[in-house]
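# nightly structure sweep
# worker-07 picked up a monomer target from the shared queue
# config: single-sequence mode, recycle default, output format = structure tokens
# input follows
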Amino acid sequence: MYGAPEIADRILIAGQSGSGKGYLMTAIVSRWEQVAVIDSKGDPKAVIPNAKVTGDWREAVKALPGRVVYQPPRHEMRDHRKKVDAIIDRVLTLGYMGAAVHELNDAADESSEGEAPAVFELFRKGRFYAVPSAVCTQRPKRIPLVCRTEASIAVTFVLIDPDDRDTMAAIIGPEVRTAPLALPFDRSFYVRDQRGRIQLVKGGIH
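# output follows
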């Protein structure tokens, strides 16, 4: 899970703000040789080594193939989903590189396929383009259904909202429903891997 990407990897990471989900995703994608990282929050911890960091989506597209982190300024979030779609579309066109989206809810929801079709294509057919992907969210119930049903690896940190816990429990297992008690804010998480095995990782990764 933490090494070089497999072309079939489609990783979904859910958790409250501050739970450790962004830290885990950065740890994963930092090991990918070529990757486009999209971070709408401008979190310094989302920046991976040896990557071009830009707030201009056009520069992000031009930097591919390679390692790029797109962090748009908050005042330029207009049409954010279309800009993200353009970056991911470029990744899919090139193939053989990864795509990572921090806070997927900013980039897509179940009703946005017409506006952001490449995000949906990433999970549906990313493996055919040899494009592994990783996305994280605070509200898994609100992300596109395809991102939940097509995830080959699913991870959940602590989730407070019962609907979000139920959503991840349907993917991982019933243990997730008691996550607020079983998972303190210490970066512990449940993971369901490509073979369907469920594991509790206490204290997160180091």
